[in-house]
Design brief:
The complex is a heterodimer of chains A (about 140) and B (about 100). Chain A has helices at about 15-25, 30-50, 105-115; strands at about 1-10, 60-70, 70-80, 115-120, 125-135. With about 140 residues, chain A is of the alpha+beta class. In chain A, a hairpin with a 2-residue loop joins strand 2 and strand 3 (about 70-80). Chain A has a single domain (about 1-135), classed as Histidine kinase-like ATPase, C-terminal domain (Heat Shock Protein 90, 2-Layer Sandwich), CATH 3.30.565. The longest helix of chain A has 21 residues, at about 30-50. Chain A is globular and about 40 Å long. In chain B, helix 1 runs parallel beside helix 2 (about 55-70). Chain B has about 100 residues and is of the alpha/beta class. Chain B has one domain (about 1-95): Transcription Regulator spoIIAA (2-Layer Sandwich), CATH 3.30.750. Chain B is built from 4 helices and 6 strands, in the order E-E-H-E-E-H-E-H-H-E. In chain B, strands 1, 2, 3, 4, 5 and 6 form a 6-stranded mixed β-sheet that branches. Classes of the chains: A alpha+beta (about 140), B alpha/beta (about 100). Chains A and B meet through helix 1, helix 2 and helix 3 of A and strand 4, helix 2 and helix 3 of B.
């Protein structure tokens, strides 16, 4: 199964993005737990793009969903400034509440819950792909 | 997301139902900002929480920090899927989970 969505990279479109991912996952009968993890990953990545990819004018974000042999693959692409979210240092999760910083958790969760996460810069586009086995 | 607040003396029980995401987390944050005065025991009931992303975790971390000087914060009835997110992110060490 394959599906595609293009939206303006704005946080207001998060519900539309998650709705799209959710429908796709239901169509491929994704189990509940994996569905939540994939939705969380999609949210973290889309919100990241909406927050950092474009400076002032809002650009577009493209989301491509595919599922083959029980492996879900979701690719996010934008034409914003080159940015590899995977290059960021992981947050120190052993720190106490007082010492913990607010940021960095989103992408960390993506890395921990997905089977594979890759970033590439191609034709002035940031392309981030997540893959997860769902069964 | 639905937020239900029950106050018993200086204890506040906050029941969060549905999805705690980038869109809904600011609402919970605001609710907490307006309700922690004179509270020394904050309890979250997550039995009906279906989803949490990093934005929801941030609200919990802020609440935990806010309650440190006031008293205690407890999280109870955490569904298995949400617990797994707490484990991955080290929140099981930060939060008091019952």
């Amino acid at each position: 199964m394959k599906a595609f969505l293009e939206v303006s990279a704005s946080k207001e479109n998060l519900d539309q993005v998650i709705g799209f991912i959710s429908e796709c996952l239901e169509a491929v009968q994704c189990p509940f737990k994996q569905k939540m993890q994939l939705e969380v990953a999609a949210e973290e990545i889309f919100v990241n793009i909406a927050s950092y990819a474009y400076d002032s004018a809002t650009g577009r974000a493209e989301i491509e969903f595919s599922c083959e042999d029980d492996a879900v693959s979701i690719t996010f692409a934008d034409r914003g400034a080159a940015f590899d979210p995977l290059g960021k240092e992981d947050p120190d999760i052993s720190l106490s509440a007082e010492e913990r910083k607010i940021g960095g958790l989103g992408i960390f969760m993506v890395k921990k819950t997905m089977d594979n996460v890759t970033y590439r810069r191609e034709n002035d586009r940031n392309i981030l792909t997540i893959i997860k086995k769902i069964k | 997301m639905t937020i239900k607040k029950t106050k018993e003396g200086s204890s506040l029980i906050v029941t969060v139902e549905g999805r705690l995401d980038t869109t809904t987390s600011p609402e919970l944050s605001k609710e907490l900002d307006n309700s922690l005065d004179n509270i020394n025991k904050l309890i979250f009931d997550f039995s009906k929480l279906e989803y949490i992303s990093s934005s929801g975790l941030r609200v919990l971390l802020s609440a935990q920090k806010a309650m440190r000087s006031r008293g205690s914060m407890t999280v109870k009835n955490v569904p298995e899927m949400i617990m797994e997110i707490f484990e991955i992110t080290g929140f099981t060490d930060i939060l008091t989970i019952e």
